Amino acid sequence: MHEGATGVRFFDLDSAEPLTPVPGIHMRGVFGAGASFSLVSLEPDAELPLHSHPHEQIGIVLEGVEVLVLDGREHHVGPRQAYVIPGGVEHAGRGGPEGCLAIDIFVPTREDYRASAAPELPASSLQRSG
Question: How many CB atoms lie under 10 A from the CB of residue 32?
Answer without folding.
Answer: 12
